[in-house]
Amino acid sequence: MSLRFPFALALLGAVPVIFWLHRLRRRVPERGVPSLVPWLVLRSAEPMRRRRVPPSVLLALHVLSAVLLALAAAGPLRRGDAAPSGDVALILDTTLSMRAGERWPAARAAAAEILASAAGRVTVIELGPRPAVRVARTLDPSAAAAAIEGLVPGAVGADVTGALAQAAAVAGAGARIEVVTDGALAPVVDGKVDGRVDGRVGGRPAAARSSPSTTMPAGANPVRWHVVGHDGARQNVAVVGIAAADDAAGGVRVVARIANLGPAASTARLRLSVGGRVLDETNIDLAPDTTTPAAWSVAARGGVAEVRAVRLGAAGDLAGDALPEDDVADVPLASRTWSVQFAPHGSALRRALEAQPHVRLSAVGLGTLSDDGTVDVTVLGGASAAGLSPGGLPSGGALLVDPHGGPWLVAAADAITGTWQGVALHPITAGLDLADARVSGVRAGSAPAWATVLAVVGGRPAAWAGTIDGQRVVVLGFDPDGGTLAERDAFPRLIGRAIAWAAPDMPPPSLPAGAPFALPPWPVAIAHPDGRRSLAALRFDAALVPGVYTIRRRRVPRAGVVEPGISVAVRAGDPDESGLAALTAGELAAAFAPRPSGPAGDPQAVATAGAAPLQHPASPVQRWVLAAVLCALAVEAAWRAAPARRPTARAAGGR
Amino acid sequence: MSGPTPHAAHDAAHDAAHDAAREALLFDDAFVRRLERLALRVRQVAPAVGSRSGQRRTPAADFVDHRAYSPGDDLRHIDWPALARHDAVFVKLGRVAQAAEVRILLDISPSMAATGDKWRLALELAAALGWLGLSRGDRVVVAPWPRGGAAPWGPASGAARGASLLAWLRAIGPAHTPTSPPPGIADAVRAAVSDAAGGVLLIVSDLWRVDDLDRALTLAPRARWDRVVLQVLDAREIRPVATGAETLVDSETGERLTLQIDEALCDAYVAALRTRLDSVATRCAAAGAAWALLPADWPLEQAVVPYLQHRGMIE
Fold first, then answer.
1. DSSP characters for A211-258?
2. In this structure, which of A35, A458, A559, B53 has its CB flanked by the most CB atoms within 10 Å?
3. Which residue has the higher pLDDT, A220 or A300?
4. What is the model's pLDDT at position A77?
5. Cβ-Cβ contacts under 8 Å, B246 against chain A
C-alpha cells in the first residue's frame, strides 16, 4: 500500500485541534450544591482530571472524520490498483495545422488549464504521426509544463488512435484522457499518413472519412476533446506535392501540386527557383477545395528546386495565407543511383547491367567483394553464387544469376529449356512482356521456402525472390546467355527492377514533414536543414522541420573520396494537414470512439460530453474540497444540534 | 432564546424545596401524643413554673420529703400521721414544677434549603423539639440563623402554642441571597442565650460554615446550658454520585468549581467529609456538647426521634 499524496497526512494535525476545540467548548453542566466546602479540599488533588476532555460520541466522530479525510486526501493506493481518477493523460496535437492563427497558443493555454485542474499523475503525449510520450505519470506539474513548453507543432499526420491507446496504456485504467487539438487531423494508417485526397481536399479532414487504424480498448478511459481555434482562419494555399523526373531533353521535369484548401477561390503567386535563382514566377487562380498541377522543365540536373505558392490577400499582398509553412516545397533535382558490384557472368547480364541508367557498376572478383556498406546490390552468377551462403552475402541486396547449386535452390537432376511463364504478381515482373520467351539452363527442381516464385519454366521455378536474414535476394535460375529471354526489350528492365527491389530502402526525394522514411541497414549521418546532425539506421522519423535533409553513409572516411549523399526534401504541405477545416469535439469523439462501445466508450455519450466547450468536470481535488466542506458542515451541524448539557438545577441531594 | 440562569434555576429549586418541606410539616395526632410523652433532657431549669419537676422542694401534695413545720406553712401540708407517731409537726414536701429554657437555633442559610430533604428535616426537627418543650411548659424560642429579616419565634410555653410554632415554621423561608461572608453562629448563640440563665440550646444546621462553633459553644456555658448540635446533611452530601464533569455552584457564595466527579473523587470526598465530621464531633465533645449527624432522608418519627432517644438527647 502506498500513498499518492503522503504530505496530506499533515491533516492529522487537526486531531489535537479538535480535542482543543472540544475542551474549549466543553459544556460542563452546572449543579447547585449546598456548599463547596467539602469539595474545595479536592480541587488541588484533581488538577489533571479537571482538564481532561470527556469522551463523547461527537468527539469520536470528529476525530474519525479528520482521520478519514486525511487518509483519503493522501490517496491510499493498494498494489495493483487502477490509476485513480485524478490521473490525467494530456494528448496535445502538434501537427502542422496547429501553427495556423492562434491555435497553438490557445492549445497551450488549454493544456495549462488541464494541468492546473489535474489532481493526480500527469502524462503528456505529443500527438503526431508517431505519438510520443513526453512525460509519463509525473506528479510534478512543472515537469509536465516544461514538456509542453518544449513541443513544437509541425508534423504531418496524426495517429490519434495510437495516441489514445498509448495514453490508456501509460496513464493506466481510470485516467482521464484530455485531447487538445484543432480538430484538423489527418489520420495515420499503418504508420503512414493516409494522404488520400479523393479528388477533394480541405473540405473535411480525412479523420471524418477514415476509420481509425486501431481501436481503443473497450471501456477504458474517458476521453474529452478540446477543440481550439475552431473559428480561426481557414484560407490556405499549400504546395501539397512535388516531384522531379528526368525529361527527354536531358533536363529535369519538376511537377508540383498546388492546393487551395480554403472555402473561397484564391489567387496565388507561384514561383520556381533553383539554388536561390528564380526561374519562373506567375499568378494562378485556384478554385476552392481543389488542387492544381504546375510543371516546369529545368535544364540543370543538380541542386534543389523550390516551389513556392503564396496566397494573395484581397489587396494583392501576401498576407492572406493562414499557414505560411506549407507554401513552399523543395525537391532534389539529382537522380538516385544504386551502387552495384558485379562479378562477371556472361555477356547478356553485363549488357543489361550497363544499360541501367541509375546504376554505378563496379566489376569485382569473387575474392574482392566489398562489404563496407557502400554497395547497394551485389550481382553474382554461376558457381560464384553457388559457393556463397546466405550469411556470406555482402550487406545490401543480392541478384544471383544462374547459380549452379548451393542454398539458393533445390537442384534437379538436369537442366531444362522451356517457355517463361509468370506465376506471381510481383513488383519485379509486373507488367513486363516476357511471355513465350525461351529460357534455357533451368536447374532448380524447387525454390527455397523463403522465396516467392516469380516465373516457371516447364513447371520448374525459373525466377524467385525473397528475404533471407534481412537481405533481399533475387534469383534468376537460368542462363541469360541461352534462350531468347535476354533478347527481349524487357530483360534490362527485369534486371533493373530486380536491382531496385533488392537494393536497401532509400528515402523518397520528397515527403511531408514528420513522415518516417526508410534508411539502409547501415548507419547513416543525417544533416538537418537547421544545421543539426543526427545518426540513424533503417528508419528516420524526426524530419519535422521542412527543408532538405542530406543523408550520407557513415563509414571510415577515405582520403580524397567525397561521399555524395542523398538529399531528401521535406515539405510542410500535405493535402490533409494543410486543410484547416476542423471537426467538432463531438465528431472527433464519435470518429475515435472505442470499439466495441461500452459504458465509457459509447460514441454518442462521448460526443455529447466532448461537444461541450472547454469545461472541466470537478477534478478530484475539487471533489475533495467539496467533500471536506460538506463534512465540516455536517460536523458543525451535529455540533450545534447535539443537545447541550445545560446546567441542571438538580442539587447534590436532589431526587 | 436563553434559558434560565443558574441562579434563577437555583432559586426556583430552593422555593420548591421549601414548599415541599412546609407541606410535610403536619404532625398527626398519634405522633403528637407520642411526642407529648417525651421530653428534652435538660439539666438546668428556669425559676418559672412549669410542668417539669424541679430539684427545689416545696410543700406539696406529692410527697418527697419532710421538714419541720415553720410558722406560716399551709396547714393542709402538715403530715398529721407523723405528728401522731413522733409528736412533732412535719410538713410534707414535694418538687416544684419548673420550666426549662429551650433555645432552638435553626439554620435557614441557603445551604439548608439547597435540598428538599434537608430543609424538611430541619423544619420537622425544629417543630418536634419545640413541641416537646411547649408540651412540658418550657420557654421555647426558635431563632432563625442567619436572622436576616426573620424574627425569632417565642418565647412561648404551653402546648397551646404549638400551632403557632408550626405556623411560624411554615411561614419561614430560607435565605435566598447568597451572603458573603457567611454570618457566624456565635452571634446567633449569644442572642439566643442572652435572656436566660441556662437551659437547653439546640442547634439545627448543616454546619458547613461554622468556623466559630467553638466560640459559640462557649457563649452557652456548659454549667448552665445543655448544648445539642444536630448536623443535618443530605444523603448526596454524605455520599455523592459520580456524574462526570460538573461545575458545582455554592448555594451560599455562588462560587463555582468544575470537577470531574468520578468514583475515585467520590471516595476522596467521603474520606474528606469523614475527617470533617470527626473534627466537628471532637470539637463538640471538647466543649461538652452533644453532637449527632442526621441524614436528611431519615424519617423523623421512625428514625430521627428514636436515634435522639438512643443518644440521650430526648428522654
1. --SS-PPTT---EEEEE-STTS----EEEEEEEEEE-TTSSEEEEEEE
2. A35
3. A300
4. 63
5. 28-31
Q: Does B246 touch chain A (CB under 8 A)?
A: yes
Question: A243-331: what fold?
Answer: Immunoglobulin-like (2.60.40)
- The pLDDT profile of chain B, 315 residues, written as one tens digit per residue, is 334 444 444 455 545 545 554 555 566 777 777 777 777 776 665 555 555 555 555 656 566 777 888 888 888 888 888 888 887 888 887 766 666 788 898 888 888 877 768 888 888 888 888 888 888 778 888 988 887 667 888 788 887 888 888 888 888 877 665 555 666 788 888 888 888 778 888 898 888 877 788 888 888 888 888 888 999 998 888 888 888 778 888 887 888 888 888 888 888 888 888 988 998 899 888 888 888 888 888 888 788 888 888 877 777
Compute the 3-state secondary structure of chain B and give helix, strand, coil in percent, each to the nearest 5: 40, 25, 30
CA distance B300 to chain A (A): 18
CATH 3.40.50.410 fits A88-232+580-618, yes or no: yes
The confidence score (pLDDT) of residue B61 equals 58
Cα B289 from Cα A313, distance rounded (Å): 126
Strands B225-233 and B290-295: parallel
**CA separation for the pair A459, A437 (Å, rounded):** 15
Q: What whole-number distance in Å separates Cα of residue A18 and Cα of residue A68?
A: 14
Q: Which one, of A17, A642, A60, A43, lies nearest residue B247 by Cα?
A: A43
Q: Do A37 and B208 touch (CB under 8 A)?
A: yes
pLDDT in tens, A615-640: 344 444 555 666 667 777 777 776 66
In chain A, where the domains are located: 2-80+627-641, 88-232+580-618, 243-331, 338-355+380-498
- Strand order, beta sheet including A132-138: A132-138, A122-127, A88-93, A176-181, A223-227
- pLDDT of residue A573 exceeding 80, the answer is yes
- Chain A residues in contact with B268 by the CB 8 A cut-off are 42, 45
Q: What residues of A are in contact with residue B243 (Cβ under 8 Å)?
A: 31
- The three-class DSSP label of residue A610 is helix
The answer to whether the A88-232+580-618 and A243-331 domains have the same CATH topology is: no
Distance CA B53, CA B94 (A): 9
pLDDT number for residue A474 = 92
Domains of chain B are 6-44+100-310 (3.40.50), 54-97 (no CATH)
Contact flag B208-A34 (C-beta cutoff 8 Å): yes
8 Å CB contact of B236 and A49: no
* A230 within 8 A of A614, measured Cβ to Cβ: no
Check whether A366 has a pLDDT greater than 80: no
Q: Which of B117, B250, B260 sits opposite A33 (nearest CB)?
A: B250
CB contact residues (below 8 A), chain B span 260-299, against chain A: 260, 262, 265, 268-269, 272-273, 276, 296
Helices assigned H by DSSP within A56-102: 57-74
Task: Name chain A contacts of B10, Cβ cutoff 8 Å.
Answer: 32, 649
Task: Give the minimum alpha-carbon distance from A74 to chain B in angstroms, rounded to a whole number.
Answer: 37
- A contacts of B296 (beta carbons < 8 Å): 653
Indicate if the pLDDT at residue A535 is higher than 90.
no
Instruction: Indicate the pairing of strand A252-260 with strand A237-246.
Output: antiparallel
Residue type, A524: V
Q: Kindly state the DSSP code that residue A160 receives in the 8-state scheme.
A: H
